[in-house]
Structure formats: C-alpha cells, structure tokens
C-alpha cells in the first residue's frame, strides 16, 4: 500500500512525532525503490528521469504533494491547543524533505549514468578519500616456527591435537608417571591455581608445565595406531631473562603402534632435524631421564654455527660452548606404566614420544639472542619475519 497522509485525531506531541517518523519511513522506502530502478538496464534514461520526476511531485508538488497535504491535514485541522506542536511537526517534515529530495536526485542521476561495472567500482572506490596505507602483518616468528615443525610431521602422516592450558594434576603429572611427592615434579617449576586444597590432589588445577598431558588426552580418546603432534603454550615459574620466559611453547609428539622401536624414534627425529636445520645436520641421542619414557634421551644436533667443529673464527664456538653439539629436545620410549593409565595393553603396543621447545628452535634458526624479544611486541623486531 502506498503511503497516504493520515488524518489525525490526537495532536499531542508524541502522536505527531509518531506520524512524522512513519512518513519518513515511507519516504525512505520509496526513495530506495526509485534508486533501485535507476540501476535497471530495462528502463531508458528518459523513463528513469520520469520516474524521479513522479517521485518528487508525489512528495513536494505545490498543489497536492504530500508536504502540502501534511500542512492541510495536520496544521489546518489542528485544534487551537494543538496548533503549536502541529506547526513544528509540519515544518520538520518540510525541512527534512527539502534536504532529502535533492540528495535522492543526485544519487539517482549517478546511478542512471553508470554501467553496472562502473557502479560496483564506484561503490568500492571513492577516489576523493585520502589513501589508507595498509601495513602488512607478519606471522610471529614463534608461530611461524611452530607451523614449520608441525608441517614436517604432517608430511610424515601425523595429525594435530590440542589440549587445555589450565590442566589438572592428573594429566600434567600423575598419568605421566610422576607419582605424588615424586622429586621429578620439582624439575617443572609449576604455577598452581589458588584455592584448590579442598579437592583431591588429582583434580587440582595448575598451568600446564609441558604439552605432555595432551599425550594422555589423545590416548584416552584414540586407539592405536596413534601418530600426533601437539603444539601449544606452556607455563613455568621462571624469572624472565635472555634464555627463560614464564610462558613459552612446546610441540609434543607421540607415536604408538605395534612394534615401534627406538630405531623408529631415531629415524624420525633425525629426519625432522634435517628438515628443520638442513640436511648436513647430524643428531646424537644422549641418555637422560623423564618419568613417562623409558629409556629416555636428550637429542643433540651438530652445532649449526661452527658445523660441529667446536671452533669458529679461530676461537672456541660460543654457541655450543666448544662442544660441537647443541641440546635441543627430550624423547624416549613411552613407559609401560603410562599405558596403564589409558587402558592400552603394554604387551601389545609400544611407542615413542618427544617434546621440544619452539622458542629454542626459533632462536637457533633465526639467530635471535634474547627470548624476551619474542614477547616484547616490538614491531621493529617482528617485521623482520614478514
Ligand atoms: N615434557 C618434557 C619437558 O617439558 C619434554 C619431553 C621429554 C617430552 C621427553 C616428551 C618426552 O614427550 O618423551 O621437559
């Protein structure tokens, strides 16, 4: 139904305001329809011009346009006590139309004269605006390194699993074969959540100190064969300095299947280190201890700064303390006790696990000398990785 000016019985301010709003709504609707038709390829330019003419007359023609009708029906008909408010409403309508109609005409003319291709260009591009310089973001070097490491393992058929940063004692420690009060827990500098004392130890919350709990969560929901990497943020109660940060990132790996041996572990990690640091890098497995692996090892790579020689520029290599080797990650064969927590049969399956610090690898790959640079948010540092 096209809009018709209503006769009013109520000339209160609020009733008049309502009537004005309704008129404005109707006007906008009709104006939009005219603008839409101004784009139509089916109408000629003359037809489009007539369309606008009609629209303007309907609202503003002196004799019987809507503006005039408003004057007649709202102001003339108003009782004495309503005259003032009615006068104001009528003026408001007139002024408003006076502003709107030429605006609609301008827009209709622009639309009329454009081809559809020009029109979309016009809508996207206002060449009178000052230019906007878009600063291109760069991937953060830690995330970039993390993605690179994950990609190496995805190419070997591993999938990706994630777990929560706020963990329970059970997943962070107990199920990984750190018994309550075992001294191995002391190596983890744990940040505990306050107010957990009322709960049983295994349910108490803490910030995960490593990504190893995701091993347990994965084995709880998947049966072997399992091949996963688990990237994520971890927390330790360490004071920040050039080599320590209370927040850092790790990537955990886990492979469980029938007949997985230490050879598979060595071959996998040797391949991964060569993929990350170049094919001339050598690896060496050094006996170590972790509660959840047996046997356990630390993996060292030949020093990428001195080529494993231990000397550089006629002096001892500072990066490897003249040893020719750099320690990079922990690993081992999954301890059979761990399988007991996730209902795997240690007589049937075997597997290996590993865990590496992402910042540590990024520091070596990019020659960064202070871990804090990753967290300070200094754009001059970060934009170098774009
Ligand atoms: N979770 C250990 C840590 O943060 C690293 C680690 C060592 C992970 C050996 C493993 C592993 O999966 O097998 O110190």
Annotate the secondary structure layout:
Layout: H1 13-38, H2 45-60, H3 66-76, H4 83-113, H5 116-124, H6 141-154, E1 159-160, E2 166-168, H7 169-172, E3 205-207, H8 213-221, E4 226-235, E5 247-257, H9 262-277, E6 283-290, E7 293-302, E8 311-312, E9 315-316, E10 325-334, H10 336-342, E11 350-357, H11 358-366, H12 379-382
Parallel strand pairs: 1-4
Antiparallel strand pairs: 2-3, 4-5, 5-11, 6-7, 7-10, 8-9, 10-11
Q: Rounded to an integer, what's the Rg over CA atoms?
A: 37 Å
Order of helices and strands: HHHHHHEEHEHEEHEEEEEHEHH
Distance between the termini: 59 Å
Read across the widest sheet, the strand sequence of neighbours is 1-4-5-11-10-7-6
What is the molecular shape?
elongated
User: How many β-strand stretches?
Assistant: 11
Uncertain regions: pLDDT < 50 for 5+ in a row? none
Q: How many helix segments?
A: 12
Can you describe this structure?
The structure is a single chain. α1 (13-38) packs antiparallel against α2 and α1 packs parallel to α4. It contains 12 helices and 11 strands. The protein is α+β, with helices and mostly antiparallel strands. The mean pLDDT is 93. A 7-stranded mixed beta sheet has the order 1-4-5-11-10-7-6, sandwiched between helices. The protein has helices spanning 13-38, 45-60, 66-76, 83-113, 116-124, 141-154, 169-172, 213-221, 262-277, 336-342, 358-366, 379-382, and strands at residues 159-160, 166-168, 205-207, 226-235, 247-257, 283-290, 293-302, 311-312, 315-316, 325-334, 350-357. The structure holds 3,4-dihydroxyphenylalanine. The site of 3,4-dihydroxyphenylalanine has 11 residues, from β10 and β11.
């Amino acid at each position: 139904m096209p809009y018709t000016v209503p006769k009013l019985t109520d000339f209160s301010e609020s009733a008049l305001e309502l009537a004005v709003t309704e008129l404005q709504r109707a006007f906008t609707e009709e104006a939009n329809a005219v603008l839409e038709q101004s784009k139509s390829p089916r109408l000629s330019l003359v037809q489009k011009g007539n369309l606008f003419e009609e629209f303007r007359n309907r609202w503003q023609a002196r004799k019987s346009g809507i503006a005039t009708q408003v004057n007649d029906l709202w102001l003339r008909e108003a009782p004495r006590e309503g005259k003032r408010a009615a006068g104001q409403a009528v003026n408001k309508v007139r002024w408003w139309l006076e502003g709107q109609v030429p605006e609609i005409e301008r827009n209709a003319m622009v639309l009329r004269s454009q081809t559809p291709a020009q029109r979309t260009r016009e809508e996207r591009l206002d060449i009178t605006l000052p230019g906007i310089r878009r600063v291109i973001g760069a991937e953060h070097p830690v995330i970039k390194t993390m993605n690179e490491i994950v990609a190496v393992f995805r190419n070997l058929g591993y999938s990706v699993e994630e777990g929560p940063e706020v963990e329970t004692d059970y997943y962070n420690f107990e199920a990984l074969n750190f018994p309550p009060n075992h001294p191995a827990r002391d190596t983890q500098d744990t940040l505990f959540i306050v107010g957990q004392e009322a709960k049983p130890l295994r349910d108490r919350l803490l910030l995960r100190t490593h990504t190893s709990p995701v091993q347990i969560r994965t084995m709880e929901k998947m049966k072997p064969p399992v091949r996963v990497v688990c990237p994520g943020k971890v927390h330790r109660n360490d004071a920040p300095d050039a080599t320590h940060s209370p927040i850092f990132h790790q990537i955990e790996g886990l492979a469980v299947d029938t007949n997985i041996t230490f050879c598979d572990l060595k071959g996998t990690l040797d391949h991964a280190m060569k993929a990350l640091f170049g094919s001339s890098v050598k690896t060496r497995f050094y006996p170590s201890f972790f509660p959840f692996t047996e046997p356990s090892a630390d993996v060292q790579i030949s020093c990428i700064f001195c080529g494993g020689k231990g000397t550089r520029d006629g002096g001892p290599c500072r990066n490897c303390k003249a040893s020719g080797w750099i320690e990079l990650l922990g690993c081992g064969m999954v301890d059979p006790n761990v399988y007991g927590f996730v209902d795997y049969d240690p007589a049937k399956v075997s597997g290996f696990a590993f865990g590496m610090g992402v910042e540590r690898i990024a520091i070596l790959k990019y020659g960064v000398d202070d871990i804090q640079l990753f967290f300070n948010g200094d754009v001059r540092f970060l934009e170098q990785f774009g």
